[in-house]
Specification:
heterodimer; A: alpha/beta; Rossmann fold; 2 domains; seven-stranded mixed β-sheet; B: mainly alpha; ABC transporter involved in vitamin B12 uptake, BtuC; two-stranded antiparallel ribbon; 3% strand; transport (chain A); BCAA_transport (chain A); TAT_signal (chain A); signal (chain A); amino-acid transport (chain A)
Chain lengths: 428, 288
């Protein structure tokens, strides 16, 4: 392509060359499915690679690459390798819109892995208008609960479920480590899309479980201190504070509450339920707090351990948050590509979306598989597969949502320890 | 109105205001002499906080680490100004402004490259507050207010009693006249850069004490609040910056308590707009 473009410029001069470029651009814009016949099948990684949330991109990319390498080393999809194009959302809405437009309209990707909750609202229209299948391994936002049929999928449970899990655990002693049930909670939520998404589900669930939230405080993220906000929360004399925020703000709010004499319980969300947060906030401050995490089902626990070892061998580092979700997202995309090629003879945006449901959801005669290699063998032999992932069954509802169990963890002796598991059906 | 809650909010507001005031003084000092707003100023705050963290990690006591960092960042400020700003001093405001924005990004990313993008904890021990007549007074906030008061008193003495301070005020008032009166403008400029960066570093350390965690964007983020304080007090006026800082700090905390935690900053900026409508040159009538 590059060589022929250079020749065209030489022969026809600059104007002719520009016309050729424009024509090529128009062709690309009007024929997105032609990508399937090029050397590579391009998948967009629509994630923050710079900025405050750059760690999300850093966590996701190596896992996605590991699965792509598995596909490519097995001959790719009909000889075409899977390649990634980065779309850096910077963890903000406007950059997310720009990055999505570039991936969809310029790079002409077949599918998108991403975005995060932080930039979903900006990318949503671009994805919907162009019917680009997206599989997000990170976006728990409730904005995705009923956002789009057929093209939006995610391999991470909705914050609606996460919110219910926190309230269920806080109000039911069977999920706590010897503590009494919460009767008077206060909810503190950062005013950013990824956090506000938890607000209604948590408040509604506490109502349902008979312990209405005494006060909900929505605070400005990134403030140097939250002493006045904490004073407002403590004025309710709560027995628990449920805190949804970034790790930095959470550490600040907990420190400010400690300095204001608070000795009650804390419940935090997935972003804090890791060893980095203990280091950031200080072990003494966070001893005894409860956290939420997505856990594997009993059936997939062994596969999770095998995945962790495989990733360590591949990347030389431990898998981080969203690693298992990314593994499932990329396997779903790769198996759907292969099925689209084998059954439809081509891989297009339209048939890729339809094939995602066909390879992920259960059905009569389907063989359950847990990775690309096993699934590819079944598909090539003429069978049908039901992909069952590391995070759970990976069965999508009509809106592309999955359900998964949650683990309740507590910091004990400076380490996160799982104290109970809430099954997915306990949250219905 | 609950008097205890009000007094509690005042204590919190004074501590935050002290941090903003110290930071604002450094910015307004450099503006007074150079006549341009240094957008890289926020990075001096970041450098001060990270240098203190690094030195404390190397085994220095926290106050000593802070003092060494303030001097080191002051010297770095002089070097940076020599390289980036001094050659452009006679080419108008725009090149200086653009350079300062670019410099902010360079310094920001240098910190990120060396220290990483993840937030870090400032090594301050966890302490329960003093309780005075039902009002919680966090110990580190008392230290913050004390350091801020001492810093502002020292700036006042420097400007009003020392030859350097008088020279700085003379150059700020009329650089050409000061030169003709024998004031060595380059020396005054170098001293101004040193003071501005050093005070910025001190502001960064106080900010780190206040917000517990550090990240490479902390200074850049805080710059907006510092600008508000500088404008409120009257740009170019150190005393105005002190007053502006205290008002903005109190405004943010009172706003969070009595208006909405969600609009805490908005309340402070409404105050700024109201003051500027009544006094376009700010409270202390600084240069516009």
């Amino acid at each position: 392509m590059k060589r022929s473009l250079t020749r065209a410029l030489r022969r026809t001069g600059v104007l002719g060359g520009l016309a050729a470029v424009a024509a090529a651009g128009m062709l690309a814009a009007t024929a997105p499915d032609a990508r399937a016949h090029d050397a590579e099948l391009e998948v967009g990684l629509l994630l923050p690679f710079t900025g405050q949330y750059a760690w999300v991109g850093s966590n996701v990319q190596p896992v996605a690459q590991m699965v792509a390498d598995e596909v490519n080393q097995a001959g790719g999809i009909a000889g075409h390798e899977i390649a990634f194009v980065q779309g850096d959302t910077e963890g903000v809405v406007d950059a997310g819109t720009t990055a999505a437009q570039k991936l969809v309209n310029v790079n002409n990707v077949l599918a998108i892995v991403g975005p995060t909750s932080l930039s979903f609202s900006g990318a949503r229209q671009v994805i919907l208008q162009n019917d680009v299948p997206m599989v997000s391994p990170t976006a728990g936002t409730t904005a995705l609960d009923r956002a789009c049929r057929d093209v939006c999928f995610r391999t991470v449970p909705s914050d609606s479920l996460g919110g219910r899990a926190i309230a269920r655990a806080a109000t039911d002693p069977q999920y706590l480590a010897g503590d009494q049930a919460t009767r008077k909670p206060v909810l503190m939520v950062g005013n950013a899309p990824a956090m506000v998404s938890f607000k209604q589900p948590i408040a509604r669930a506490f109502d349902t479980y008979g312990a209405p939230v005494a006060e909900t405080i929505t605070y400005t993220p990134g403030k140097p201190s939250y002493r006045s906000e904490v004073r407002g929360a403590l004025a309710n004399d709560p027995d628990s504070i449920v805190l949804v925020g970034t790790p930095e703000d959470t550490a600040r709010i907990m420190t400010n509450a400690f300095q204001a004499g608070y000795q009650g319980r804390w419940f935090v969300t997935q972003d804090q339920t890791n060893s980095d947060f203990i280091e950031l906030a200080g072990a003494r401050l966070v001893e005894g707090i409860y956290g939420l995490e997505e856990v594997s089902s009993d059936a997939s626990a062994e596969r999770n351990r095998a995945f962790e070892q495989r990733f360590r061998d591949y990347a030389g580092a431990d898998p981080q948050i969203f690693a298992t979700n990314t593994f499932d997202a990329m396997n779903v995309v790769a198996l759907a590509m292969l099925r689209a090629h084998l059954r439809d003879g081509e891989v297009t945006r339209a048939n890729l979306a339809a094939n995602i449901e066909r390879i992920a959801n259960p059905g009569a005669g389907k063989i359950t598989v847990h990775d690309y290699t096993a699934g590819a063998k079944v598909l090539r032999d003429g069978g049908e597969v039901n992909y069952d992932g590391l995070v759970g069954p990976t069965d999508f509802d009509a809106w592309g949502n999955i359900t998964a169990p949650f683990g309740i963890r507590q910091v004990q002796n400076g380490r996160w320890t799982t104290v109970s598991t809430i099954a997915a059906d306990a949250l219905n | 109105m609950d008097l205890n809650a009000f007094l509690q909010t005042l204590v919190y507001g004074l501590a935050l205001g002290g941090t903003i005031a110290v930071s604002a003084v450094g910015l307004t000092l450099s503006y007074g002499v150079t006549r341009f707003i240094n957008f890289a100023y926020g990075e001096f705050l970041t450098l001060g906080a990270y240098a203190t963290l690094a030195l404390a990690g190397a085994g220095l006591a926290l106050p000593l680490a802070g003092a060494v960092s303030v001097v080191a960042v002051g010297l770095a400020g002089v070097a940076i100004a020599r390289l980036a700003f001094d050659p452009l001093m006679h080419r108008g405001l725009l090149p200086l402004l653009v350079t300062s924005v670019g410099l902010a990004f360079v310094l920001h990313n240098m910190v990120r490259m060396v220290a990483g993008a993840n937030p870090l904890r400032f090594p301050l021990p966890l302490m329960r507050p003093w309780e005075v007549a039902g009002v919680f007074v966090p110990r580190e906030q008392v230290a913050t207010i004390a350091v801020a008061l001492v810093a502002m008193a020292l700036v006042h003495l420097l400007l009003s009693r020392s030859l350097l301070g008088k020279s700085m005020r003379a150059v700020a008032d009329d650089a050409a006249l000061a030169r003709s009166a024998g004031v060595a403008a380059p020396r005054v400029l170098a001293a101004t850069w040193f003071l501005s960066a050093a005070i910025g570093a001190l502001g960064g350390i106080l900010l780190a004490v206040t917000q517990v965690t550090l990240d490479p964007a902390m200074g850049w983020r805080f710059l907006l609040v510092v600008f508000a304080a500088v404008l409120l007090g009257g740009i170019g006026s150190p005393y105005g910056a002190m007053l502006g800082g205290l008002i903005v700090g109190l405004g943010v905390e009172l706003g969070a308590t009595y208006v909405s935690a969600d609009y805490a900053y908005a309340f402070a900026f409404v105050l700024l707009i109201l003051v500027l409508l009544a006094r376009p040159r700010g409270l202390m009538g600084g240069r516009t």
